[in-house]
Amino acid sequence: xxxPSPAPVPFPSTLLTDLRSAVGESHVLQGGDLGAYERDxxxxxxxxxxxxxxxxxxxxxxxxLRACARHGTAVVPQGGNTGLVGGSVPDDSGTQILLNxxxxxxxxxxxxxNLTMTVEAGCVxxxxxxxxxxxxxxxxxxxxxxxxxxxxGNLSTNAGGTxxxxxxxxxxxxxxxxxxxxxxxxxDGLSGLRKDNTGYDLxxxxxxxxxxxxxxxxxxxxxxxxxxxxMTALAACDSVAQCVALLQLAQGRAxxxxxxxxxxxxxxxxxxxxxxxxxxxxxxxxxWTVLLEVSDAExxxxxxxxxxxxxxxxxxxxxxxxxxxxxxxxxxxxMWHLRESISMAQAEEGLNIKHxxxxxxxxxxxxxxxxxxxxxxxxxxxxxxxxxHLGDGNLHYxxxxxxxxxxxxxxxxxxxxxxxxxxxxxxxxxGSISAEHGIGALKRxxxxxxxxxxxxxxxxxxKQALDPDQRMNPGRML
Length: 478
Ligand SMILES: Cc1cc2nc3c(=O)[nH]c(=O)nc-3n(C[C@H](O)[C@H](O)[C@H](O)COP(=O)(O)OP(=O)(O)OC[C@H]3O[C@@H](n4cnc5c(N)ncnc54)[C@H](O)[C@@H]3O)c2cc1C
Hints:
By secondary structure, the protein is of the alpha+beta class. The protein folds into four domains: 13-100, Uridine Diphospho-n-acetylenolpyruvylglucosamine Reductase, domain 2 (2-Layer Sandwich); 107-225, 2-Layer Sandwich (Uridine Diphospho-n-acetylenolpyruvylglucosamine Reductase, domain 3); 229-343, Alpha-Beta Plaits (2-Layer Sandwich), CATH 3.30.70.2190; 350-442, Alpha-Beta Plaits (2-Layer Sandwich), CATH 3.30.70. The protein has helices spanning 13-23, 35-38, 58-71, 125-134, 151-156, 164-167, 170-173, 202-206, 240-254, 266-275, 300-316, 329-340, 342-349, 364-378, 407-428, 444-450, 453-466; strands spanning 28-29, 49-53, 75-78, 96-100, 107-111, 116-120, 137-138, 174-180, 186-189, 215-222, 224-225, 229-237, 258-265, 288-296, 322-325, 356-358, 383-389, 394-400. The strands form four sheets. A seven-stranded antiparallel β-sheet has the order 15-12-14-13-17-18-16, sandwiched between helices. Strands 5-6-10-8-9 form a five-stranded antiparallel β-sheet. A hairpin with a 4-residue loop joins strand 17 and strand 18 (394-400). Helix 1 runs antiparallel to helix 3 (58-71) and helix 9 (240-254) packs antiparallel against helix 11. The longest helix has 22 residues, at 407-428. Flavin-adenine dinucleotide binds next to strand 3, helix 5 and strand 10.
């Protein structure tokens, strides 16, 4: 956690001139209230930028990076600033340029025959989805922050979301990138090819690199035909083992039509009930609620037959205890809205200790049983706000202060001990400490301790080769 210091840092005047001539005076913000840019979504990190620079084209990004290279100035790229690991805000030195990509937001092209769209990095995900839909196609990247997060941020974090089960994460959906290097050179890799074995695939170096290697300015994203119909339901389960059994049943019956499988513990839903009582919860409280979605390419009739057969089989075999099927698009949206309100409800409840973890699906019941018990023993009264993308083996296994305790004090006093307990358990079960949010500032130390030395030294070699002056998002990830 950083605390802002008021002492102003002198601005190298030639840098200011260079930045203004790169993007125009009105797009170099300094002094005044830059709080919205300098504070992260969780309100956990608050840095101080030398200036916020808002380029409107790839050429302007390149000019900004050339100016920063000449002055040896560090650059922090920022998209929608919805990242949850403290990677998109500057540190508190007051010496870093915050490069906000929000103005670089055009959909450059949609190629229906190639099933691709070319989108600039600052385009908000929801706007890109809408553009694909207008062309009768589907951009199947979807997450609760989609009204604010950007394609550049999604690719830089290799975002996951709710449809990874069927379509893969941001990496799988990206067929090409345009990137500006730390020295201001532009790499145009916007080929949109599905096959291209001409050496190292640079695209995969930049995807998931969290702004530490260069600036993504545009991408070619894969599109899909719109499904003919979707069916959504909520189902109640007595245990996480039953949720896993339901997943197996659903995969067996719906195969590739299964597009959503989210689990939510009752503790998570209880926070939504508390902070957003106006959001309907169609099922009575149960230990676990699953949100299932089947999207069918064939017909609404086929989707309904598959879906109803699946739910009947689950009820008959006792895998689920109750279910509510959405009978309209509005009801389906309401179910997704309920699921997507958890992060906001948790934010309302106060700071918490977040764990975005991945495990082999088969290990999840044992992990949850033993880790829940160990946390309850070590931190009596602690609340486990557990939810996530079970179909991908991804849990948001978040630890909230005991009821009535101060959330900031709990975070300050117990974060290290809670993390050690949880991440040791994750490692013992063959999992990952970051499934989809990335490393940022939050997990940098954990990464250094837990990633294999060989992997770390290869990562450092890549960083050294692509950003030898260590000016791109310093102090993040590595
Ligand atoms: C309510 C809520 C729900 C969420 N749900 C999910 C979810 O289901 N799945 C998921 O994966 N994440 C989720 N997130 C996290 C977040 O939305 C994602 O990480 C998202 O991809 C970040 O996009 P952004 O544009 O906000 O990036 P930012 O937060 O601005 O930046 C994230 C990182 O990418 C870098 N970066 C941003 N743009 C660029 C660029 N153009 N070039 C180079 N580097 C860049 C930044 O430096 C930073 O390190 C959620 C967040 C919230 C608040």
